[in-house]
Amino acid sequence: MKRVIVISTSLRTGSNSDMLADRFVKGALQTGHEVEKISLTGKNIQFCRGCLACQKLGKCVIKDDADAIMQKVLHADVIVWATPIYYFEMSGQMKVLIDRMNAMYTLDYQFREVYLLTTAAEEEPEVPQRAEGGLTGWIDCFPKSRLAGTLFCGGVAGPRSISGNPKLEEAYEMGLHC
Fold first, then answer.
1. What positions does the domain NADPH-dependent FMN reductase-like occupy (predicted)?
2. CATH number given to 3-176
């Protein structure tokens, strides 16, 4: 059994990336993993100030929701990021959280597998490449971990327009095999 943290970064109710996250969760639960889904909706996550105090303290000096999320990420076996693609990049919320988890750089971490689930209005296969590159930059800072899988669903713009899309089943299967 693995401890799986799924971070849904879309702030839109009924978002397509959140629906992919839910299907991944369902698959991982079906396998018997311990799964927690964290939605960034309603979370207070401020911008990194670049003070680097976190490198000495092991936590950020800013008092908001980022540190609690980081603690869960540190102790998970699998991390799953779900994000809409905006202007060919991960959501701003996802990037801000990644920046705020800078305190993890000097700490021991448990996760080995990282997954990325993305959705976008555009359909071209290269659409998620910048988001994947950004996440890979974060993963590279944690050499015991790796990008274990990615899933992109294009052509979905409106809320819940992913309904009935075969990519939902792919997300479920990915969760089964994480």
1. 3-106
2. 3.40.50.360
